Amino acid sequence: MSHASPHRLSASLIIARIFFILLCIALAVLMVFHQQIPDVLGLGLVVDNLAPWAGLGIPALLLIALVVRGRASFIGLLVPVVVWSVLFGPQFIPSAQRAPQAALQIATQNVHESAGVQAARELADAGAQVITLQEIGEGQEDQISEELASTHPYRYMVSTVGVWSSYPLKNAQPLDLGLGWNRALRVDVNTDHGVVRLYTVHAASARPTGHEERDAMLASLAQYVQDDTSQKIVAAGDFNATSTDRHFAPMAAALQEAKFSDWGLAMTWPRSPFPALGIDHVMMRGVSSAGLQRAAIGDSDHYALQATIDLDS
């Protein structure tokens, strides 16, 4: 008489473990190749910008692994863990804030029309030498300029995007970036440590139902930056795209992102109920990041970013 081995796995458990391993591989593949997913009905946009959040699938998979058990299951779980750690883990570790001798303090915020004056005042009080604001409400340019008259007397504004500076500004130019009306600008900031070419932009909105205008603006801005021969370049503003968005890739290739000086990603929108996307950026070339802080200022739905730039690097 033969007896079945007590260690023999049931067919259903074997299938469950195989399916679990396939889920682990699928999550890892999604994180690595999210930019290759066809952007049908806005799926690509959603997956790209939520890519870091795919890591939330790992705790769910862990719970399943505890149910199906088996060495192969836990080895399979390591695949998305390693992939997420390599792709996004370094960004979660804070970069040390330092105070270089040749420092430039730059701040940016989408003020959501109504918070321009308060944002300008608080960012100036925080030490920002150059302040760029987006979505400035009608009539606020003069109010902001009056508020900053003693500390940031130099200004340049195009449409709803403006720059106020403690240093003289020159060679100012509006940029429509293919939108048909100006929603970006570039200007040279004449600092004590040389000229810095500053780009600031408020990219068009991106929704699953349509983001063509934003895509065109990002591509045009990236082309401007790539063709720019300036030694020191900084781009700051509301790009309406996270660093994992496929249409942000040309900007990421042309400029280096400022490093966040706190744990986690520099999520800037929305402020309520919690920040989920990092769509505001400070980027640079020919200089280096010495720190990046996030600040809740005014009643805007965006956090402000305050960057310390090392101009001697």
Automatic annotation (TrEMBL):
Chain segments annotated as coiled-coil in the UniProt record: none
Keyword Transmembrane helix: yes
Domain Endonuclease/exonuclease/phosphatase: 108-302
Name of the protein in question: Endonuclease/exonuclease/phosphatase family protein
Classification via Pfam families: Exo_endo_phos (PF03372)
InterPro entries for the chain: Endo/exonu/phosph_ase_sf, Endo/exonuclease/phosphatase
GO molecular function, one term: endonuclease activity
Domain of life from the UniProt record: Bacteria
SUPFAM superfamilies linked: DNase I-like
Membrane-spanning parts: 12-30, 50-68, 75-93
Organism in which the protein naturally occurs: Glutamicibacter ectropisis
Record keyword Transmembrane present: yes
